[in-house]
């Protein structure tokens, strides 16, 4: 029996099952099922897989079966990234190296708060991130949702003049910029190593030809545009793309794995009491293989960064 996709929203997002039961992704190795899942991803942009008791090693292995190369430069070298011991494992937790909840003033915590701004993963890198696989380890007792926005629908809903205006534009994305908008400060040396990447404002899914708006809180300028005019357009596009009708909020359950396409969605963590509640999720992101340096994007960042 084939895979079933149960829509979670009128426009995008679906929960996946097979034969009326959760599909154990650790056991999925066959090309037929993986192709069905990839087709579902092209349609829904966000797929929810319940009851996935992944270890870190199993999650890394499945991500490679899903899409090949993994992104090993997910963030920056500004904060401690050593807790999980592998640069392809993104630490989406509020824990320090001792496994304790971080203090309110902890610099890593303050840096990570910008993950609550709308973004798409690793757009400040070239190549950017393509698919992100986020898996639960510890779910807090309070709600700590992740919200998604459908960037296919956002693009489709733009008027024809705006589509024409932005079709060939390129934006500069920087992880330093998104954090600076919240007042986080960097040293000159840190900023030297966070030069970001240039990305098209409109992306096309190479398998379906469908266009999506490609923006994020990392986007800070448009190439060859005056800065105030560029930021105004980026703000207008962000406001447009995150209207409630384009958004789905996922309430995490123990064992959930959520996989999304960074080309066709944005996401953000929703606020919760992270001082008093432990939360641990692990993220693996694949490389955007259709978006290599020398094609659409320019490499601006330091290759030595992790
Ligand atoms: Fe993210």
Please give a handful of descriptors for the protein shown.
alpha+beta, disordered C terminus, single chain, Double-stranded beta-helix, 8 helices, four-stranded antiparallel beta sheet, seven-stranded mixed beta sheet, 306 residues, 16 strands, binds fe (ii) ion
3D architecture notes:
The protein is of the alpha+beta class. The chain has a single domain (about 5-300), classed as Double-stranded beta-helix, CATH 3.60.130. It contains 8 helices and 16 strands. It has helices at about 30-45, 55-65, 105-110, 150-155, 160-165, 175-180, 190, 225-240; strands at about 5, 15-20, 45-50, 90-95, 130-140, 145-150, 170-175, 195-200, 200-205, 210-215, 220, 245-250, 255-260, 265-270, 280-285, 300. A hairpin with a 6-residue loop joins strand 1 and strand 2. The longest helix is centred in the C-terminal third of the chain and has 15 residues, at about 225-240. It is globular. The chain starts with a strand and ends in a 7-residue tail after the last strand. Residues about 290-305 have low confidence and may be disordered. The chain binds fe (ii) ion. The site of fe (ii) ion has 4 residues, from loops.
List the helices and strands and how they pair.
Elements: E1 3-7, E2 14-18, H1 31-44, E3 46-49, H2 56-67, E4 90-93, H3 107-112, E5 129-138, E6 146-150, H4 151-156, H5 160-166, E7 170-173, H6 175-180, H7 188-192, E8 197-200, E9 202-204, E10 211-213, E11 219-222, H8 227-241, E12 247-250, E13 257-261, E14 265-269, E15 280-287, E16 298-299
Parallel strand pairs: 2-3
Antiparallel strand pairs: 1-2, 3-13, 4-15, 5-13, 5-15, 6-12, 6-14, 7-8, 7-11, 8-16, 9-10
């Amino acid at each position: 029996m084939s895979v079933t996709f149960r829509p979670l929203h009128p426009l995008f997002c679906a929960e996946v099952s097979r034969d009326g039961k959760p599909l154990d992704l650790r056991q999925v190795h066959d090309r037929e099922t993986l192709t069905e899942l990839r087709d579902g991803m092209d349609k829904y942009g966000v797929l929810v897989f319940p009851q996935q008791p992944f270890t870190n090693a199993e999650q890394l292995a499945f991500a490679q079966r899903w899409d090949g190369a993994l992104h090993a430069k997910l963030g920056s070298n500004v904060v401690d990234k050593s807790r999980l011991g592998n640069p392809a494992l993104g630490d989406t937790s509020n824990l320090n190296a001792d496994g304790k909840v971080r203090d309110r003033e902890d610099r890593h915590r303050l840096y990570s708060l910008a993950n609550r701004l709308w973004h798409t993963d690793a757009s400040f890198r070239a190549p950017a991130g393509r698919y992100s696989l986020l898996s639960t380890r510890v779910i807090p007792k309070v709600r700590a949702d992740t919200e998604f926005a459908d960037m296919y629908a956002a693009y489709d809903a733009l008027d024809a003049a705006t589509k024409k205006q932005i079709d060939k534009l390129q934006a500069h994305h920087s992880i330093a910029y998104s954090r600076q908008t919240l007042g986080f400060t960097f040293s000159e040396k840190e900023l030297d190593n966070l030069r970001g990447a240039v990305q098209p404002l409109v992306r096309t899914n190479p398998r379906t030809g469908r266009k999506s708006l490609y923006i994020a809180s990392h986007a800070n300028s448009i190439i060859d545009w005056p800065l105030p005019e560029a930021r105004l357009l980026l703000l207008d596009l962000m406001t447009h793309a995150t209207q409630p009708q384009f958004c789905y909020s996922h309430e995490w359950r123990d064992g959930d794995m959520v996989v999304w396409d960074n080309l066709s969605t944005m996401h953000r963590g929703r606020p919760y009491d992270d001082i008093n509640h432990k939360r641990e999720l692990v993220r693996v992101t694949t490389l955007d293989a259709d978006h290599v340096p020398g094609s659409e994007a320019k490499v601006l960042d330091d290759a030595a960064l992790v």
